[in-house]
Write a structure and sequence with these properties.
With about 400 residues, the chain is of the alpha/beta class. It is built from 14 helices and 12 strands.
Length: about 400
């Protein structure tokens, strides 16, 4: 008999994918010009030329046996050292190669990190709005995910609700900053307060509470924004990173898990991740990607377009009348669904699903309702698109505001 749990999951398609697929179908039927697709976070700028040059040089001149052979289970030593050295230079840390575990993107890093520090029946806390895939990442370990309600005014941490939910069953707290879907960045003040609370609760409960940080948007931070490195503030931390956004390489599936050297049992966690791989079938990203990354470790694509797009959208949407927490990074923002005609429900919010589908079907304006991010009454805009498309879409946002 096939596995019923995964069979049932096939009927629970991602809402993001539903809107993305609708956009593709509409484009096929009515033409690409009929669609303004803000549904999915696929980088819109190319990888830097230096990455292409690194790949070509490695392929043309590298040892083909090493290049196309198996990578060590815990990753290429040179790549791990390169990542550790970069983190130390940039953030004043003291990582060594032994604290780095290369993975298939941030998703692979999260899957390993969670399994390393939770046990069956434990609780993992995260904060709304949050990336919906955290659900299966956590439930697949036997732990349960609980979501702290959002602070809708700032999208910083709702500390009152957090402290209510932080009980002795919590073994890990998962944060995402810069944040998908809100576009905010947790400030130094926020991270310091979070660290203080976790330190106190560790002492009270007599066990470690690990802070797992999901950081694929680390390099997409706008001018003047306070963007701390969370592991600098809390010893029991594991950083999960992807080069998908910084280098525009989502299809290459390359990232890493970095264990804070000051964490409890720090020297065990990367070897433990290697054992986790035996159960997940992960067995490292490709040797080629690891070797290429180490040559461009501190470089990024030209990410400036995202701030330009954010400023344009924020200015125009607030002019129209939308309520928006100004994004501080990433390529997302999460406006409130407009309620010009006073049709909000008892919770004070419009039905985001209804509004988003109406805008999609009538205007070809494709956004994503906030319910799946546990942020009802809001919708996500992914603005990693050409600026010209945003300019053409502004009149559509004006029409949608009247719904």
């Amino acid at each position: 008999m096939i596995n019923q749990f995964y069979k049932e999951m096939t009927g629970k398609e991602s809402v993001i994918r539903q809107f993305f697929d609708f956009a593709r179908q509409r484009a096929a039927e009515k033409g690409q010009d009929s669609v303004f697709n803000f549904s999915i976070g696929n980088p819109s700028v190319p990888a830097p030329d230096s990455f292409k040059k690194a790949l070509l040089e490695i392929v043309e001149n590298g040892d083909p046996v090493k290049l196309h052979g198996y990578s060590p289970t815990l990753g290429q030593d040179s790549t791990k050292k390169s990542i550790a050295d970069s983190l130390n230079r940039r953030f004043g840390m003291n990582y060594e190669a032994k604290h780095i575990f290369p993975t298939s993107g941030a998703a692979g890093a999260l899957a390993h990190a969670i399994r390393c520090v939770v046990n069956d029946g434990d609780t993992v806390l995260t904060f709304a709005p949050y990336f919906p895939e955290y659900g299966p990442y956590v439930s697949g370990t036997g732990a349960k995910l609980q979501v702290v309600p959002a602070d809708y005014d700032t999208f910083q941490i709702n500390f009152e609700k957090f402290e209510e939910m932080l009980d002795e069953n919590v073994s890990a707290v998962l944060i995402n900053s810069p944040n998908n879907p809100s576009g905010i960045v947790y400030t130094t003040e926020t991270i310091e307060r979070l660290a203080e609370i976790l330190e106190n609760k560790q002492s009270e409960y007599g066990h470690e509470i690990f802070l797992i940080t999901d950081e694929p948007y680390r390099e997409i931070v706008f001018e003047g924004v306070d963007s701390p490195f969370p592991s600098k503030f809390y010893d029991n931390s594991i950083c999960c990173y992807s080069f998908s956004k910084s280098l525009s390489l989502p299809g290459e599936r390359i990232g890493y898990m970095a264990v804070n050297p000051a964490a409890k049992d720090a020297d065990y966690l990367v070897p433990m991740a290697g054992q986790v791989s035996r159960f997940t079938g992960h067995n490292c990203p490709t040797a080629l990607m690891q070797l290429a990354i180490e040559r461009v470790i501190d470089e990024t694509s030209d990410l400036s377009i995202y701030e330009k797009n954010a400023n344009l959208l924020y200015t125009e949407l607030t002019r129209i009348g939308y309520k928006v927490v100004k994004p501080m990074g990433t390529f997302y923002m999460m406006p409130r669904v407009p309620d010009k005609n006073g049709t909000a429900g008892e919770n004070g919010y419009r039905d985001a699903n209804e509004w988003c589908w109406k805008a999609a079907r009538e205007l070809g304006l494709i956004t994503v309702p906030g319910d799946s991010f546990q942020c009802p009454g809001h919708f996500r805009i992914s603005y990693c698109v050409p600026t010209e498309m945003i300019e053409k879409a502004i009149p559509l946002f004006e029409k949608a505001f009247e719904y």
